[in-house]
Amino acid sequence: MRAVVLLSGGLDSYTAAAMVKAHHFSLFALTVQYGQRHTREVEAARAVARALGIERHLELEIDLRAIGGSSLTSDAAVPHDRHLGATGIPSTYVPARNTIFLSLALGWAEVLGAFDIVIGVNALDYSGYPDCRPAFIGAFESLANLGTRAGVEGGRFRVHTPLISLGKADIIRRGLDLGLDYSLTHSCYDPSPRGRPCGTCDSCVLRAKGFREADVPDPLLLR
User: Fold this and answer.
1) Number of helices and strands (H, E) in the chain?
2) Which of the chain's ends, N or C, has fewer CB atoms near its CB within 10 Å?
3) Could you read off the pLDDT of 9-58 as tens digits, one per residue?
4) Claim: this prediction has a pTM higher than 0.85
5) Is the CATH code 3.40.50.620 the one for domain 2-222?
6) Distance in angstroms (rounded) separating the CA atoms of residues 164 and 187
7) CB neighbours of 118 closer than 8 A, spacing ≥ 6?
8) Domain chopping of the chain, boundaries
9) Strands (DSSP E) along the chain, which ranges?
10) Which of 157, 129, 130, 131 has its CA nearest to residue 143?
């Protein structure tokens, strides 16, 4: 069985891919270089792909900086020390990003003859992005089956979200049980020029919370 996995280089997509691989899927990874300021994650995605034994790792460049609307695709400041319980969608939301990424994964899956797509979205320990919710995933799955030749000819696409109901600590525990090396990953939205995590953006705070609650050290901080 073939599956296309959206691989960002973060610990969520790494873990989601490994969980699906454990169910005997052959993985084809898609990483999108979308003009994000944290391009260090692309290097991490390459390392993660090698560790997972991906069949093929495809990197696509689609510059969303031209659209803007996010502090990840512009020079706008990334929020730091934001309370995780804050309401509202933060400026790190990239307009329609998961819709775009899933559409690219869907196109490639149709070419590969694959009907399974994997994305590491999470609806518990996340920043409130609307395209990480189960309702969005269900709607996209319906779209995939309505709007493709493979779908109308009887195929059935499925979007796998193995992390969607897990907290960050549980995600980390699952990954460690699968033998994952989280030192390969990158999570920070606003790293230093040398790639060091800032420690105070939403993604860094959520990652630290996860490792703390899992009662294991973050290997990135042991370097």
Assistant:
1) 7, 5
2) C
3) 999 999 999 999 999 999 999 999 999 988 889 999 999 999 999 999 99
4) yes
5) yes
6) 17
7) 3, 4, 5, 6, 16, 17, 20, 27, 159, 160, 161, 162
8) 2-222
9) 2-6, 26-33, 56-61, 116-118, 158-160
10) 157
